[in-house]
Amino acid sequence: MDDRQREIAEIARLVREHLEWEAGLQGAGIPFWEAELGSEAEAEPETVAAAPIPDVPIARSPIAASVTASPIAAPPAAAAPVIASPTPEPVRISLPVPERIARLRVLADGAATCTLCRLHESRTHSVFARGNVEAEIAFVGEGPGANEDEQGLPFVGPAGQLLDKMIGAMGFDRDDVYVCNVVKCRPPENRTPQADEAAACDRYLTPQLETVGPKVIVALGRVAAESLGCAEPGRSWRGMWGSWRGIPVMPTYHPAFLLRSPEMKRPVWEDLQKVLGRIGRTPPSRSG
């Protein structure tokens, strides 16, 4: 083997080692690391390009290590792969209470005269919300029933009475939390809201939750969990933490379901205990 053949063989060996080194680093010699995050629901998306790159020591490339020891020039560096960055979530702005109330009033007035879907055709009243506009916890149901349509307030029927008991067991008064629904008008015969109806009402639900800015959202039932992006067809959803625009979401069963299946109250209580833990609270002790 002459000098030229030995030189070619050496280049081939170095290239092979360099590629193996890159494969071990998962990306063309680019350092990577995992940020110290809590649960998946707590993580706020960041733009990769905007993140500062720390001085992280990494193993040197076999080619880079050979530069001073060998006269053989290293081949051109491989192009860095394009890393897709997640879409930044909207920033939630903390608003003074009077401004929150004013914004929510405008939204409620809009919902009261909305004709974007068929549900407006049979409503008596639109049903926007009840509770504290500075609440730590927001409960989101699917849609109003007959009692709610009559009174214009969410969760005032039998399911609402059970929800109030659940809220009390968590150590809150009913007016300490914020309660609303995915759709603001009653579906006929209390049927499940359809996808286009939920989509039409999102113009109210999204700014509504953004304005309140709770620390945690409890999604009551699959419809609410799906509308908040925390349930997928054919997959478990109850008790599985999700996230909506950076806010942790705990999907659990709807109180109306619990009225039909009281044996499921225990797993729902376990879900609510997780919610309390997320905001740094514990259930109140029961006297007697």
3D structure, described in words:
With 288 residues, this protein is an alpha/beta fold. The protein folds into 2 domains: 3-66, no CATH class; 97-278, Uracil-DNA Glycosylase, subunit E, CATH 3.40.470.10. The chain is built from 9 helices and 6 strands, in the order H-H-H-E-E-H-H-E-H-E-H-E-E-H-H. It has helices at residues 3-25, 62-66, 97-112, 146-151, 158-169, 195-212, 222-227, 255-260, 265-278, and strands spanning 129-131, 137-141, 178-181, 216-220, 242-244, 247-252. Strands 1-3-2-4-6-5 form a 6-stranded mixed beta sheet, sandwiched between helices. Strand 5 (242-244) and strand 6 form a beta hairpin. The longest helix has 23 residues, at 3-25. It is elongated. It starts with a helix and ends in a 10-residue tail after the last helix. Residues 21-91 have low confidence and may be disordered.
Question: Count of helices?
Answer: 9
Compute the separation of the termini in Å: 93 Å
> Biggest sheet: strands, sense, closure?
6 strands, mixed
Strand content: 5-15%
In percent, how helical is the residue content?
25-40%
How many structurally independent domains?
A: 2
The named CATH superfamily of the largest domain: Uracil-DNA glycosylase-like domain
Mean pLDDT: 79
Broad shape: elongated
In CATH, the topology of the largest domain is named Uracil-DNA Glycosylase, subunit E
Strand order in space, largest sheet: 1-3-2-4-6-5
- Low-confidence parts: 21-91
Give Rg in angstroms: 27 Å
